[in-house]
Amino acid sequence: MHRQLRGLPTYMYLNKREQRLETAAHAYLTKYPAGTKAQLGEVITTSGADPEDEKLLQELRGKIEKVIEARTGNIGDYDSVIERISELQDLEQQKEYFDNVLEVLEDYKPGYGKLLRLRYVEDLPAGEVATELKVVRKTFERWRPKALYEYAKISGMS
Fold this sequence. Notes:
Helices cover about 75% and strands about 0% of the residues. With about 160 residues, it is an all-alpha fold. Helix 3 (about 35-45) runs antiparallel to helix 4, helix 5 crosses helix 8 (about 135-155) and helix 7 (about 125-135) packs across helix 8 (about 135-155). The chain is elongated and about 75 Å long. The two termini are about 45 Å apart. The relative contact order is 0.06. The model has no long low-confidence stretch (mean pLDDT about 80).
């Protein structure tokens, strides 16, 4: 997509606000670095001649910082870090619960827990799962819905 847009004039894919940001950037920047961190460094050292241009350059800095933040996952404030840690702990609890249900299922119906783990956790293709379980593909296809049903019963989803 970037390759296609590169050949088009910017007015064909940028809105009016983005065009004003681009114009301000071209007016004040002497270099156009490729990386986002280098771009941010270039924009930070630049200041506008009037308050309108300064405001546009500040907005451009903010947009570049958001791109960097989205790519690196860095979040500036303490509350956001706490929130991310909390989300991670919730995910770990869900994973532990999932593992426990698969263990109970394996004890209850041998082969079913391993089938679900290989197919959905390790993301192996059906043929490889059948080979691992030492069954033919048809048996795998018969066991899979039964294993899912038993998993749902044990986990309380049915």
